[in-house]
């Protein structure tokens, strides 16, 4: 009996060592609390010296802030870059992680990990008001600050938020990264550090506030990770390293495309085809826009186009204002980005494919570049009517970027859903692909910022570009088919042989 049981125990022991590492390769159990204790003690010490207004710390903070702020003050390009980088640690990032990561984990049936992500990210959103009461620290005093931040100055919310958000992503998805774990950890540390530096360089936080945000984030991640492991302790070996992630056994379930051998069969050929398609679509937009602003400028077509906008502006009803405002928001950058990220998460979680994600990313990247290039070169003026809503973007009127974005996004999604599903879901996707852009287009006309022919330019852009991307990338192709889509493959195999 013992001879039968012992080999089984030994075999399980060896398997766990291969999966998680041996005890000699991992920190001792008593060292697992180093992050928690170190982060908490460092934060309390820093809190005490800031509360006491310790002069050496204040001088060091001011010296570092003055040096970094002086490097970027007066440089508009540098300030814009810093503002863009600092957004990687804002509340918008935390909210997207709070929504999208649990959504993916719930679809993959990783309920404990989803609960961990929700609790950890929500906890990072709470401390702000309490710290303002405890510390009462103001932001650094600068002669020429390049940015202003709302909320508490100590600790830095961006430093805390970025460390917690990217820390959650890292701990949850490490088991699915295979040999890229070291690269993922290095990239996470780099992004968190960059966010912290931008807060100091913009003059909205001192160095001590950034460090306090990092220490609080480390302590909070350690607490939630320890609680998660305590909850699941009976399922983990005693020597499991943190570098294996929170749930090493969930690696296969978390992996995005385990059965997709290649994303694109011929990436360089696909890139060449897309480049040619982009140039052709841009040429069509440039030609159509040049006709509207040149030879056809005084024609009946253009005058009717302008008259329609004036008629709509003269028929405005206050009751329609909120509806038009919502329609414009649906087509702006923030809403489109949120919809794109949500669609990508669903694609990776359900069909577990990367090629449709690449297709969607290329469609939206091409839409943005085509819109910016065409509107800059054509330069058609916006309608000569009172504009509603906030300040209008500095781009020209033809084509409408607000309409082109939902046309491309929901049109691409409708194609994917039509291929993957059957019945009513197909028509829901097609309806969204038609009704959402139409709603946005009506809103832009109602606001008086576009002509009807501008919307026609957006429709031309979307139809041509989405069709080109579908043909070049073939997102419906089955994994390993080399780009041949399922329908064509089934038709080919169903043909009788020539013999």
Automatic annotation (TrEMBL):
GO molecular function, one term: undecaprenyl-diphosphatase activity
Disordered, as annotated region: 477-499
Residue span(s) of domain Phosphatidic acid phosphatase type 2/haloperoxidase: 110-225, 354-470
Record-linked SUPFAM superfamilies: Acid phosphatase/Vanadium-dependent haloperoxidase
UniProt cross-references to Pfam families, sorted A to Z: PAP2
Keywords noted in UniProt: Hydrolase, Membrane, Transmembrane, Transmembrane helix
InterPro entries for this protein: PAP2/HPO (IPR000326), PAP2/HPO_sf (IPR036938)
Top-level EC class: hydrolase
Transmembrane segments: 34-54, 88-106, 113-134, 154-176, 183-202, 208-228, 276-297, 333-350, 357-378, 398-420, 427-449, 455-473
Gene3D superfamilies xrefs: Phosphatidic acid phosphatase type 2/haloperoxidase (1.20.144.10)
Record EC number: 3.6.1.27
Name of the protein in its database record: Undecaprenyl-diphosphatase
Lineage: Bacteria, Bacillati, Actinomycetota, Actinomycetes, Micromonosporales
């Amino acid at each position: 009996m013992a001879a039968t049981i012992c080999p089984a125990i030994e075999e399980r022991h060896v398997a766990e060592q291969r999966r998680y590492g041996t005890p000699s390769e991992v920190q001792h159990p008593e060292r697992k609390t180093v992050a928690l204790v170190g982060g908490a003690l460092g934060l309390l010490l820093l809190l005490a010296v800031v509360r006491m207004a310790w002069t050496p710390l204040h001088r060091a903070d001011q010296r570092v802030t003055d040096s970094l702020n002086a490097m970027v003050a007066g440089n508009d390009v540098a300030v814009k870059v810093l503002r863009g980088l600092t957004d990687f640690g804002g509340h918008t990032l935390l909210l997207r992680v709070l929504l999208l990561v649990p959504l993916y984990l719930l679809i993959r049936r990783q309920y404990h990990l989803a609960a961990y992500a929700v609790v950890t990210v929500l906890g990072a959103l709470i401390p702000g008001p309490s710290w303002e009461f405890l510390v009462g620290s103001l932001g650094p005093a600068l002669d020429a600050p390049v940015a202003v931040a709302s909320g508490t100055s100590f600790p830095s919310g961006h430093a805390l938020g970025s460390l917690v958000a990217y820390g959650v992503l890292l701990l949850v998805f490490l088991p699915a990264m295979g040999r890229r774990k070291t690269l993922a950890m290095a990239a996470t540390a780099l992004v968190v550090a960059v966010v912290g530096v931008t807060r100091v360089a913009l003059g909205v936080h001192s160095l001590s506030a950034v460090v306090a945000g990092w220490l609080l984030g480390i302590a909070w991640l350690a607490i939630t990770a320890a609680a998660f492991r305590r909850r699941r302790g009976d399922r983990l070996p005693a020597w499991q390293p943190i570098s294996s992630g929170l749930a090493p056994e969930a690696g296969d379930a978390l992996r995005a495309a385990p059965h997709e051998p290649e994303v694109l069969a011929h990436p360089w050929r696909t890139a060449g085809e897309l480049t040619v398609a982009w140039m052709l679509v841009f040429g069509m937009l440039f030609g159509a826009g040049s006709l509207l602003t040149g030879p056809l400028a005084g024609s009946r077509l253009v005058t009717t186009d302008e008259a329609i906008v004036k008629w709509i502006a003269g028929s405005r009803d206050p009751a329609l204002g909120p509806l038009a405002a919502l329609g414009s928001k649906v087509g702006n950058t923030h809403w489109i980005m949120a919809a794109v990220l949500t669609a990508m998460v669903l694609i990776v979680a359900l069909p577990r494919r990367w090629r449709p994600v690449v297709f969607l990313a290329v469609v939206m990247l091409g839409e943005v570049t085509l819109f910016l290039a065409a509107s800059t070169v054509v330069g058609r003026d916006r309608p000569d009517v009172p504009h509603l809503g906030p300040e209008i973007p500095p781009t020209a009127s033809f084509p409408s970027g607000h309409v082109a974005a939902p046309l491309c996004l929901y049109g691409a999604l409708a194609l994917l859903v039509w291929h993957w599903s059957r019945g009513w879901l197909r028509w829901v996707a097609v309806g969204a692909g038609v009704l959402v852009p139409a709603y946005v287009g009506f809103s832009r006309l109602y606001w008086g910022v576009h002509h009807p022919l501008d919307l026609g330019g957006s429709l031309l852009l979307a139809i041509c570009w989405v069709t080109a991307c579908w043909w070049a990338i073939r997102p419906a192709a089955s994994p390993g088919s080399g780009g041949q889509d399922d329908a064509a493959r089934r038709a080919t195999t169903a043909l009788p042989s020539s013999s």
